[in-house]
Each structure stands twice: as structure tokens, then as C-alpha cells.
Amino acid sequence: MRELRNCALVCFLLLASPLVFVSPLAGAQGNTWIATWAASPEPADPGPNKPLLSIEDQTVRERVRVSLPGSQICLRLSNEYGSAPLVIGSVTVAAAVDATSVRPGSLQAVTFGGHNSVTIPAGAPAVSDPVAFPVTSGAEISISLYFPKRVTSPTLHALALKRAVVSQHGDLTRAEKIEGGAVSKSSILVTAVLVPAQPSECLVVAFGDSITDGDGSTIDADNNWPNDLVRRLRTTHGGSNVAVVNEGIAGNRLLSDGFDVSKSFGASGLARFDRDVLALPGVTHVVLLEGINDIGFPGAKLDERDLADPADARTPEDLIDGYRQLISRAHAHGVKLIGATIAPFAGVDIPGYYSESKEAVRQAVNKWIRTNGSFDAVIDFDAVLRDPDHPSRMSPRLASPDHLHPNDVGYEAMADAIDIALFK
């Protein structure tokens, strides 16, 4: 296990090598690290009314909820989709009260090689120095970032499902409350929070599309299935040693990039797997839930836009070949890959997304996932979510109004169906 963590850490640091700063304290302690929270970086779609797309001399305050405790934290910031160097004037962390406020006396400065500011080259991430900021499992952290210069092409996570506040002007990273700012449901720049690793800990990466990202769940409630799983683990013997991070992207596909349709749909699962999974320090398990958009996009329209050409229809064999690739890549790093069956989607409110022929593809893929034995284990989310009377659609009790994503109750049912012994 220790060798696995060391290997994963090396991969992570190589990925972040343009601006990795390791403090003398970290070197003296010989810490290895494990991710306690993560979000996949995405490019931004243009939009005149999106506050994160017009930042200049402003502070952004956003929140993350960690899954594993630790005595220190490090932040990973990303300019991976930036077109120019990105200047960060200052960064602080604090115990969150709400979107705008932090607990008095909890603010701590974050440094990079001992400096309060950092410039991140285009296309690169940066990892902070360790911060003496103890966290418990389930704690919500407020992260404040000051951008002194105009941000021309931010790296975001579009479906953060947590309100972030963008100040009017100035460096307010040390303010206990930011008032009068704009609100965004996306997050900017922060893609991982790390804590010192302990020998008995493991890291589960939830990897997939909008159903992993949490679309359809309540804003600010952290009611996606990965967070629900964290809550379950906290009440289970030995579960406090398991970190769960969410690397879902709304609109993501396993086999195709989303850039022709929406930049925020991100790179394909095959393309981003190394960055979002294998490069995370401490990763031991992956839960893979992806493929519904590969099946549904061809011939579908969203706001009069073609999501994918009908000629790009995917066969079961196409998806299975993609799964086999990810299994091989995970196993090469000593990581277990757990396959999850694709959820039912009849009745979805996107024209052209569902058809009987597409349902046949889903059924064939799910049969392979359940019976082939290529995955290290299987979680049958289809069985959890489907309507017993109409198995091609999601149960009305568990579905959000779009009939594609679960609601809060559905996400909790998904988490409750997972055998925690899979992560031993």
C-alpha cells in the first residue's frame, strides 16, 4: 500500500511539476499525501452573465467538503485550460459558515514556496505548501482566492452545486464576510485538497458523468452519491479510513471529448483518466459510472444544438473496448477498477436522447459489466434506480424531473447500495 501511495504521489508531482513547491517542514516530516477532496478541471463555456468569466481585481470565495481527516492540508490549483499565465495574489483557507462567511479566527494564509502569491503558467497546475489547518471528515472548508489581474480563460468546475461568491473589487481573502458579491454555482481553480496519508487509508475515486457529478441534487447540500457514501463511511467501522473524491463531469463521455458541443463537458473519460484518477496521491479504487452520454448523444439535440452526429452512434463493443482500456491502465498502477451499470433513461426530456435501439445498447453493456468478470467488482446502480414496472426508466420516486438524473433520494439509494467491503 505504501509503495502504491509513493508511486501515485510521484505521478501527481510530475503532473504538477511546473510549479510544485515543497516546504522544508514537509521534507523534514517525510509526508506522503492523499486526496481528501477533488474536482475535475474543465474549460469554460462563454457566457456574458457568468461572474467567473469576467474576474479582475476580485476575490472568489468557494467551499469544499473533505472526506478524510488530517492535521495539515495542501491545495492543488489549476490553470490547465488557461491561455495565459494566471496571477493569484493571495489565498486563504478557513472554516466555512456559509457561502459568504467564515468562522471568526479560523483564517489561515496559503503559501507557495513561502510566497503569498503565485503565477501559474498556461496549461499547468500548482501545489501549495502544507498549511497547518486540521480538518475532520465531513468538514466544510472555505477557500478564498484573489485575482489581481483579468482572468481571460479560467479553469472551472461547472457543476460545483455549491454557491461561490465573487466580490465586487479588492483582496478580501482575509475578510470574515464578503458582502455584495455576485454568486456562481461553479467553482474556479481549486482541483484537489490533500492531507497527510496514514498507512491504513485508501482513496476511492468516483469517476464519470453528471450522475457522479450530482446533477439533479439540491444546491449546497452535498447530496451526490459520493458525498452520501462519505456520510455512510463515517458511521461504519473502519470507514473513517476511506477517502472518497468526486471526479464526475456533467455531459462527459467515455469515448469522445465534449469540446465541439460544450467546452464544459470536458475531455473524454479515456483522455482524462490519468490526470483525474491515476495522478491523485493515494488512489486505490475507482468506481466507474460512464457511458450513458456516449449512447444518448448521437442524434440528440439540446437547445437546438446537435449533441453528436447520428452517424457517431456507439455500439456495445465500442464502450466495452473503452472499459477494457481503463481496466488495463488502472491495473498497471495497482488500482482496482469497480464497474457500475448504466442507469435507465427512458423518458428523458432531451429530444432524441432515448430510443429503443439505444436502450438495447445500454442493456448489452450492462450485461457485460455484470457477467464478464473484467472489473474487480460490480455495483449495480441500474438495479437500484430502475422502475420495477418499467425497467427502461428510472423510478419516479428516485428520479429528478428530467428523468435522466436521480434526485436526493435516488443518490442516497445509490450510496446505500454500495458494499463498503469492496474498499478493504
Describe this structure in words.
This protein is α+β, with helices and mostly antiparallel strands. It folds into two domains: 41-193; 200-423, SGNH hydrolase (Rossmann fold). Helix content is 23%, strand content 24%. The chain is built from ten helices and 23 strands. The protein has helices at residues 2-15, 24-29, 210-213, 225-234, 269-278, 292-296, 316-332, 356-371, 381-385, 408-416; strands at 33-38, 58-65, 74-78, 86-88, 90-95, 108-110, 118-120, 125-127, 140-147, 156-157, 164-166, 182-184, 187-188, 190-196, 202-208, 242-248, 283-289, 301-302, 305-306, 336-340, 377-379, 386-387, 390-394. A six-stranded antiparallel sheet has the order 6-5-9-2-11-12, with no helix packed on it. It has a five-stranded parallel sheet with strand order 16-15-17-20-21, with helices on both faces. A four-stranded antiparallel sheet has the order 1-14-3-8, with helices on one face. Strand 18 and strand 19 (305-306) form a beta hairpin. The longest helix is centred in the C-terminal third of the chain and has 17 residues, at 316-332. The termini are close together. The model is unreliable at 1-29 (pLDDT under 50).
Question: How do the helices and strands line up, and which of them pair or pack?
Answer:
Blueprint: H1 2-15, H2 24-29, E1 33-38, E2 58-65, E3 74-78, E4 86-88, E5 90-95, E6 108-110, E7 118-120, E8 125-127, E9 140-147, E10 156-157, E11 164-166, E12 182-184, E13 187-188, E14 190-196, E15 202-208, H3 210-213, H4 225-234, E16 242-248, H5 269-278, E17 283-289, H6 292-296, E18 301-302, E19 305-306, H7 316-332, E20 336-340, H8 356-371, E21 377-379, H9 381-385, E22 386-387, E23 390-394, H10 408-416
Parallel strand pairs: 15-16, 15-17, 17-20, 20-21
Antiparallel strand pairs: 1-14, 2-9, 2-11, 3-8, 3-14, 4-7, 5-6, 5-9, 10-13, 11-12, 18-19, 22-23
Helix pairs in contact: 4-10, 5-7, 7-8
